[in-house]
Each structure stands twice: as C-alpha cells, then as structure tokens.
Design brief:
The protein is mostly helical. The chain contains ten helices and no strands. α5 runs parallel beside α8 (189-212), α6 runs parallel beside α10 and α8 (189-212) packs across α10 (266-309). It is globular.
C-alpha cells in the first residue's frame, strides 16, 4: 500500500470519529445554519437579561424637572411678590447641587441630564435678568450683555466639548494648562457651588433692591401729584389710589405698589455687597470659557482643513 493511500485512509478515519463525536454530543449533525441560529438565540437571551433603563426617569433628571417647575412658579410671582419669588428661585438654584450628587450616588450621570441642568440654569438666569432690565432701565444694556455672555459662553463651551471630545466627553473636564481659573471652577465642587450660588444671590439681591431701596429707586417714595388712577393693566392692581402711584409706571416699584415700601432693604444690600466679587469672578470665568471654546473650535477647523488637503 502506498503512502498516499495510507494518508487517505487516515483522513477518512479521522472524519468518521469527528462525525461520531458530533452525533454523540448533539444527537444530530452540526451545520453552519444551526450554529448561526444558536448564536442568535444567545444574543436575544443576553438582550432580555439587560435592564431596560428609562433615562428620563433617572433620579437626577426628576430633580431637574422639579427645578423647572419651581423656576416657572418664581417667574409667575416675580412682578408682584418678591419674597415668594426669591424663595422659589433660590430653592430651584440650590437643587442644582442635589441633582449632581444624585447622579453620582445612583451612577446615573447622562448627557441628557448634563444638558438639562445647563439649559435650566441658563433659562432661569436669563429670565431674571430680563426682569432686571425692565426694573432698571438705565442698566438694561448691562443686563442684556450679561445674558448674551452667559448664553454664548456656555453654548460654545458645551458645543466645543461635544464636537472635539465626542459624546462621552464631559464639559467639566478641563486641561489644567488651559487656564487656572477655568480649571479651578470646573474641577473643585466647592468653588463651583460658591460661584454659582453667589452669582445668583447677587441678582436676587438686585431684584429685591428694586422693591425696597429708595436710594436706587427714588420713585418708590415719590407719588405723582394730582395723578389720575391707572387703568387696569396686566400685573398692576386695578384702579389704585392716587397716593400709591409712582413716577415711573414701568418700574418694579410701580408693579409692587404699596407692598414695595414694606420690604426692608438691609438684607438685600448685604446679599448684594457680599456676593458682588464672586459675581464678577463668575463673569470673568464666562469670558475665559468663551475664549477657550473658540480656540478649541478653531484648532479643530485647522485639523479638518489639513486632512481635507491630503
């Protein structure tokens, strides 16, 4: 018998043993289609085992929704009830720290939650600054500039982070070499909380002073002589007594009317003066953040243009 014939017989014997082993293990001959079917079954089984999470019902996101409700309620009371508005607005701002803690505690940090948190902050602050623009007409351009800076800075920062770093990149992850103030602002929870809390406290203090300080709002104590009663207007009491009218019908004091003089201005002054330096630092961070985000986007554009020319 030749060597070739012996090799052929050995190969046939080996195939026969593999067939017998397959039959003994599975009871039938294994085919590629059956292997694919078994693989699909395992995939479906693994998908069934995974929990079906609803991102919208995560604990930090529920806190975020509650913040929105409180913010809307504070806007409703803003023209006529400064005390109620300030309490609701302050609670909404303080919950900003709680949703971050809940995200870390329950391991529920999400991109949706981060964007919801930032959008809520920007919208509530903008609404308060819009009211201050009407309460302090001379300083309207300053408040309008603060609104623009706040929105532009945070939008460009978030967009640059997601565009350059990808969807998994956090907007709070800052290179320490970028800028010391920006790095400290985002990487220290204490600094971030103090800056955000006192920044909002400054604007709340200015808001309360528009109802309580004759020094800043002389019209609070200067009724028009021989004035006729005002007609009913949205947000104004119907037909108030002539003695309760103020020189400027568009001032916050005119909206509050008699209640305005009952607010003591001492506490609003303390809040405003103490929080003013932190507010200025926060605006400095906004400027640095805007510049840093612009540089990131410009550098990304350079790399894209270089790649397109190759």
């Amino acid at each position: 018998m030749s060597a070739r014939t012996r090799r052929q017989k050995a190969a046939l014997a080996s195939q026969g043993e593999e067939s017998e082993e397959s039959l003994s293990n599975n009871g039938s001959v294994s085919t590629p289609s059956k292997k694919r079917t078994a693989s699909k079954k395992r995939s479906r089984s693994s998908l069934r085992d995974e929990p079906n999470e609803n991102i919208f019902l995560f604990a930090p996101n529920l806190i975020g929704y509650f913040r929105v409700v409180l913010a809307v309620a504070s806007l409703y009371y803003m023209p006529l009830h400064p005390r109620t508005c300030s309490i609701l607005y302050s609670v909404s701002c303080l919950l900003d720290a709680l949703d971050g803690y809940a995200a870390r505690y329950y391991n529920q940090s999400t991109t949706f939650g981060a964007v919801l948190d930032m959008v809520t902050d920007r919208c509530t602050t903008s609404c308060l600054l819009v009211f201050l623009s009407s309460a302090w007409p001379r300083w309207a351009i300053v408040f309008q500039g603060l609104i623009s800076l706040d929105l532009a800075s945070h939008y460009m920062h978030m967009y640059a982070t997601l565009s350059v770093g990808g969807s998994n990149q956090s907007h709070k992850k800052i290179d320490p070499k970028a800028n010391w103030a920006l790095y400290k602002y985002y990487n220290s929870k204490v600094v971030l909380f103090i800056c955000c809390a006192l920044n909002e406290a400054f604007f709340i203090g200015i808001y309360l002073l528009s109802f309580s300080s004759p020094i800043l709002s002389p019209s609070l104590l200067q009724p028009l002589p021989d004035a006729q009663p005002l007609s009913a207007q949205p947000g104004n009491p119907a037909n108030p007594a002539p003695s309760s009218l103020f020189a400027s019908p568009w001032s916050a004091g005119a909206l509050e009317m008699a209640r305005a003089n009952k607010i003591d201005s001492q506490i609003p002054w303390i809040i405003t003066i103490v929080s003013a330096p932190i507010m200025l630092f926060k605006q400095y961070v906004n400027v640095i953040q805007l510049v840093h985000a612009s540089q990131l986007l410009a550098e990304s554009d350079k790399q894209t243009r270089r790649a397109s020319r190759k």
